[in-house]
Amino acid sequence: MSVKLEGMPNNLATADTFTGKKVIDREGIEYGKVKHIHINQETLAVNGVTIHQGFRRDYFLSEDYIDKFSEETLLLSRPPVRTGIQVTDIDRHKIGKVKRLHKNSDTNELESIEVSDGLMHSKILSKSDIWGVGEKVILRMTKEEFKKLE
User: Fold this and answer.
1) Helix or strand holding residue 144 (H, E)
2) Strand order, beta sheet including 137-139
3) Which of 28, 60, 134, 141 has the fewest C-beta atoms lying within 10 Å of its C-beta?
């Protein structure tokens, strides 16, 4: 529990006041709860947050996903792509699930996703193949076009 200290500006808060808050995007989709706040050791700026989405399902979101903290929630500026969520084609036909995220090691920017369409099969798709993200990832292609990819 944090305490407001005398002389402390109104717009400052301790990091522990944000842990446990719900994480939602602009459409009201909930992505879990704030587990950790990551702070750059040199600049002391927030670099991102760890989101807890259930049993052993934690993931990191960089600061460019964060819009603002409210009294009860962390509001996201855009929805994140996460592992384990369903992938559909442009016509909403189920294709599979996001198996792995491939990010640039320097910028942590998403470059591609690996989509599992069965027990042993998966395909890597570029970020540009993604049409939209929310509760599901929607691709810019049909299921037939996806099947023809190598």
Assistant:
1) helix 143-148
2) 122-126, 110-116, 94-103, 86-88, 137-139, 130-133
3) 28
Measure the CA–CA gap between 104 and 87, rounded to whole angstroms.
Answer: 22
Q: First-to-last CA distance in the chain? A: 53
In which element (H, E) is residue 147 found?
Answer: helix 143-148
| CA separation for the pair 8, 4 (Å, rounded) | 7
pLDDT at 44: 86
Residue type at 52 in one-letter notation: H
CA distance 13 to 73: 14
What is the structure's pLDDT at 3? 61
What integer pLDDT is reported at residue 16 of this predicted model? 79
Helix (H, G, I), strand (E, B) or coil at 122: strand
Q: Cβ distance 110 to 133 under 8 Å?
A: no
Q: Is 72 exposed, middle or buried (0-12, 13-18, 19+ CB in 10 A)?
A: exposed
Sites in the chain below the pLDDT cut of 70 = 1-5, 8, 11
pLDDT of residue 104: 82
